[in-house]
Structure formats: structure tokens, C-alpha cells
Design a protein that fits this description.
Structural class of chain A: mainly alpha
Shape of chain A: globular
Strand content of chain A: under 5%
Distance between the termini of chain B: 89 Å
Structural class of chain B: mainly alpha
Largest sheet of chain B: none
Strand content of chain B: under 5%
Distance between the termini of chain A: 56 Å
Oligomer: heterodimer
Number of helices of chain A: 11
Chain lengths: ~200, ~80
Amino acid sequence: MPSDTSDIASLAALADEALAAQAAREGSDGAAFTTLMERYREKVWRVCWRLMSAQHDAEDAAQEVFVRLFFERGKFAGRSSYSTWLHGVAIRTCLTLRRSRSRRRRREEPGTTEQIESHESRQPETAAAFDASHDVVKLLAGLDEEDRALMLMKFAEGHEYDALAEMFGSTSAALRMRVSRIKERLAGQAGRLFGESVAPSTRR
Amino acid sequence: MDPFEKLAEIDVPPVPAARTFTAGVRRKLHPRLLALHVLEFAFGATAWALVHMTAALAAAVRFTLTGTWPDRTKRG
């Protein structure tokens, strides 16, 4: 049960790692897990909203992240900070949800996904009406799920490559290279789709 | 400026209220926990039943085939 307020207050003073260790020994209604959820609700929400792009999907994904966190709460090994590890869980959960939804949509309505994707990344004639951030979001829609997540975590959330390496299970050098390749690829598309609004500074 | 840095300027809507959010997490979590516990119990119970019933089943099969029941009084 969520214990009394003094218990929760003393837990709130604990570091993430100590709290995670305590949560691993508790049940689903444990005070440590509740405190962790409260502490990371906003950060997880940000990641989910960035990756899912819709309020309802993001809320569903954020709840799913904490469900997964509950089942994986004993797996935190302390190789990175708890926050970084949790971001990794959140990213993997969102990617899984997006892939399964896209598969389901393809199964139910063949052709719909392709229509949506081409619609998201097309529209050169109306591009001038959008600001640069909207242009970039449209460009990212054409990437595969993991590349899109990487770009969003790097540029929208501003994570460093070392943290991203932990989140994506890679090395910072590999991710640096990957980001640079994605930017090059998008620069080509940006030139075609949006004239010079996005392309010039990415062509380096 | 790197155009990709513009992504940071997109506002994230406010986080859902704590009460409804937590309730949603528990609504998803509890049925799965229940299913997991039922599954664990089912596997555990099956294993326990197999271990405890195998000897009796073996004796019943032997009795069917030979007409003799294992005599435990001869042991030790």
C-alpha cells in the first residue's frame, strides 16, 4: 500500500538508485515505486509525447512505460544513471508500440500507412506556410522508427551522445556517425521538399 | 543555426494529472500481474502434481501389468 506521508517523504529524499533497489523488493503498490513514478512522470511523458506525437498515444505509452518499468525494476544494473536507463526503457516501449500500431494499421487497412507517410513527407507546395520546426518534423516522419527516435532524443530533448549510447545500446561514436548520415540524407530530401529552408546548414 | 535544433522549440503539452495517470498505470498493471501469478501458480502446481503423482501412477501401471503392488514394508 502507499504508506503514510512520512514514509513517502523519507523515500523522496533517496537517490534514484536506492529507490529503485527498494522498489525491486516491493509490490506494485509499494511506496518506492510510487515515488519513482511521481519523480519520473514528467520526463517519461516528454519522451513519449516526442515519439508518439499524439496526446492519447503518448499517455497510453507513458503508462505502458511504467508497467514495463515495474516488471523490469530488478534489472537496473547501475552501468548508467537511473534516469538514462529509464529513458532507454521509455524509448524501447514507444518504438514497440509504434511498430505494432503501424503493423496493425497495415493489416486492417492496406495502403493507409503508405498514404499517411507520403502525406506527412510530401506537400512541397504548402511547405512555405510551415515554420522550420514543422518542416523538420515532416522530414523525420520519413525516417525509420529508430532513426527518428534518435534524432528526436538528440535534438528535441538535447541528450548527449554518451547518454544516447546507453539508451540505444550503441556507442557514442557509432551514434555520432549515424546522426551525421541521417542529416546528410535528410538534407537531400529537404532540398527537394522545402527548397532552401532546411537544406543549407545540414549540407556540410 | 542547425535546423534540427528547432525541434527543441516545439512545446510539449502538460503532463497528465497524477491521479488519473497513476490510476491508468495500475489499471494496466494489475490484470497483467494477476495473469502472471495465475500462470506461475499453474506451472508450479502442474510440476508439483507431476512429481507427487508419478510414483502412484507408475505403481498403478505396474499393478495393471503384473498384478502385484509394490511392497514398501520390505524396504529398510
